[in-house]
Amino acid sequence: MPIKVGIPRALLFYEYYSLWISFFEELGAEVIVSEKTNKEIIDIGVKNTVDEACLPVKVFHGHVMDLKNRVDYIFIPRIISLTEGEYICPKFCGLPEMIKYSIKDIPKFIDTTINFRKSKKNLNRTVMEIGSYITQDKKKIKRAFEIATEKYNNHRMLMETGLLPNDMLKKDFLGEVPQPSKKDKVLLLGHPYNIYDSYMSMEVIDKLRKHGLRVVTCDNLETDVIDEKAKTLNKKMFWSFGRKILGTTLHAIEDDGVCGIIYMACFGCGLDSVIAEIVERKVRRSSDKPFAMLSLDEHTGEAGINTRIEAFVDMIRWREDHEDNLSTYR
Amino acid sequence: MKKVYLGVDVGSVSTNIVVMDSNKNILDNLYIRTKGKPIEALKIGLRQTRNKLDKDTKVLGLGTTGSGRHLASTMLGADIVKNEITAHGVAALNTVPDVNTIIEIGGQDSKIILLRDGIVYDFAMNTVCAAGTGSFLDRQAERLGIPIQEFGNLALKSKSQVRIAGRCAVFAESDMIHKQQLGHNQEDIINGLCEAMARNYLNNLGKGKDIKPPVIFQGGVAANIGIKKAFERLLGHEIIVPRFAGVMGAIGSCLLAREEVRKTGKTKFLGLDIADSNFNVKSFECENCSNMCEVVKFYRDEKLAARWGDKCGRWSNVQIAKDDEKLA
Fold first, then answer.
1. Contact between residue A326 and residue B259 where contact means Cβ atoms under 8 Å apart
2. Cβ within 8 Å, pair A327-B128
3. Which of A102, A210, B20, B180 has fewest C-beta within 10 Å?
4. Closest CA to B239 of B256, B254, B257, B227
5. What does the pLDDT look like over B137-183, one tens digit per residue?
6. DSSP output for A72-91
7. Does B92 map to a domain?
8. What tens digit of pLDDT does each residue of A190-206 get?
9. What is the pLDDT of residue A167?
10. Per-residue confidence at B296, pLDDT binned at 50, 70, 90?
């Protein structure tokens, strides 16, 4: 019987799933990913989380609950820093503890610390530690990580062609980018776990696509381009996702193909409250592109978000028509 | 024979119906409380409208807007279903063609819409929180035992400043109670509340935006002169409250319906007598997956007319003509 490793389909799953899944599979483990976020997962997550946490963390708890009775290990790394000199949200480094003390009767965790703040030198040690939960064969771990990295790099390259993680996660994914009739790009900003979780984001990507818009995110842009742009900020952005979001924003401001920018944030997110503010100022000061802010929380009523998306699309179309000197309505 | 267009705005607090002729003249407008029952409110509204119209009036088209716009469209058959931003923008442009800024405060939403050269250029809506909107004012008026219509005039009688926290409705209310227990005048407290709302609106929605005159103030809350004055003090210029400020959304949907019917040539409106139909709503929790969507079944005269609320489309896409019992 292979060891069953559970990976919650939440938080950084959308960023690293190709790496994590293939790594554990190469090691010979059976990987079980939790169900897609649904009402039950949110309900159960909200019930089992400290009440001051943000929705993505509550959703993560829900996914852990979904996995807890059917795996040997749950992969909940303690992530402190992913890039040299940068941090991510502090909730990530307390995540294993938060879960340990909120949820009873859970399987063992793979809670290796991931901290590349000083340098990536400890990458090898980190990988070995994670791998040691499954096998003691160091060569096998090394080989598995190489294969997984290759998969991950391929995955990132595919995204640079315009694909989004939730396209690739579809069961019937064929490797084609859905092409809407009109080639208008809308830049969707926000933490990956907000924008790619279609239940939480109330299908914002599909909704925009139905309006004939092409949705692009930070992931569709090469890292070098993002970093180059982020360097032009007067002060270093020390949050990894903040750097990506700001770099992408600065790039989009100069891209004529981008006809609108949407920032999707979760209510109560400390990082978003700062980053969204900077993004909005940058967009407003150095471009005339439409900008909208969408806030998410536990509510399931979609009317609010639909109205905002509809009005945003109307505004884009209205401007286009105006530029073409057509009707002034819509 | 009179030819008219109808505009319907089903909001959280009020349901508005506007009757407009082909030359964009407003013939009639109706503002009734939704009272949490949009279907009832629409029926009452439509009956009242019908009674006021001449027998030989022909309705050329109907548009709906507001948070209940899809429901209204299913009930009445709309030619166009539009969000409130666009509807308000269109209506304001029709009233003041060179308008640059629209302040709109409704029951649950507040919006700022910036227009340049006759097009919507930028907008913002309140985020998840509904502080500083009509329903909060309503609640405070009720708590103080003052009819909401007199709220604004009372504010004008204020002689001294009382500062109320406006960031959050809960804090505002406790601040108001605190000030009232200290013995401040009711007028001053009400004025303080009006200022807090205007301040909060400008901080929240107006942040970083170029609020250029002419500024139009519309939506239900525009009827409150205390808030209008507070805005004028804060912005330093005059604010226009149009004659039909409370029903601008409905006017916008009239105009949009007129445009739409001109294109399509015919209307989807089911007729004024639809007000006598029996509308029924049943809802159930779908148990086919763990999303447990709350599906709504909408019946017109005991016949299933529409279904919505599901994420996957298994209920809303199914041909309504089929006997739904077979599927259920």
1. no
2. no
3. A210
4. B227
5. 888 888 888 888 888 898 999 888 888 887 777 888 888 888 889 98
6. SEEE--EEEESSTT-B--GG
7. no
8. 999 999 998 999 999 99
9. 85
10. confident
Using CB atoms, which residue from A281, A315, A328 is nearest to B123?
Answer: A315
Q: Do B125 and A307 lie within an 8 Å CB cutoff?
A: yes
DSSP B292: -
Distance (Å, rounded) from C-alpha A31 to C-alpha A75? 10
Asked if the Cβ–Cβ distance from A290 to B122 is below 8 Å, we say: yes
- How many angstroms away from the CA of A152 is the closest CA of chain B? 31
* Closest listed residue to residue A275, CA positions, set A241, A309, A228, A308: A241
- Exposure of B233 by Cβ count < 10 A (0-12 exposed, 13-18 middle, 19+ buried)? exposed
Please indicate whether, in this complex, the C-beta atoms of A328 and B119 are within 8 angstroms of each other: yes
Smallest CA–CA separation between A112 and chain B, in Å?
Answer: 32
Q: Which residue of A has its CA nearest to B88?
A: A311
Distance from CA of A327 to the nearest CA of B (A): 10
Is B55 found in the same domain as B80? yes
pLDDT at B9 over 70: yes
Q: How far apart are the C-alpha atoms of B303 and B323, rounded to whole Å?
A: 10
Alpha-carbon span A282 to B99, nearest angstrom: 26
Contacts of A267 in chain B (CB under 8 A): 127-128
Average pLDDT of span A55-72: 94
Range among A126-135, A294-303, B193-202, B261-270 rated most confident = A126-135
The token pair that represents B62 in the structure block: 């109907």
CATH topology for A165-323 is Rossmann fold (3.40.50)
Q: In this complex, which of B93, B208, B311 lies closest to A281 when CB atoms are compared?
A: B208
Residue B115 lies in domain: 97-241
What's the pLDDT score for residue A183?
A: 56
Tokens (6 digits) for B289: 């997956």
**More reliable by pLDDT, B301 or B323:** B301
In a domain? residue B253: yes
Task: Report the percentage of chain B scoring pLDDT > 90.
Answer: 34
B199 and B136 within one domain: yes
Task: Domain ranges for chain A, please list them.
Answer: 4-160, 165-323
pLDDT tens for each residue of B42-82: 999 999 999 888 888 889 999 999 988 998 998 899 999 99
User: Which of B86, B124, B292 is opposite residue A330, by nearest beta carbon?
Assistant: B86
CB contact under 8 A, A311 and B122: no
Amino acid making up residue A83: T
A249-267 residue pLDDT tens: 999 999 888 999 999 998 8
CATH class of A4-160: alpha beta
Query: What is the interface pTM, i.e. ipTM, of the complex?
Result: 0.79
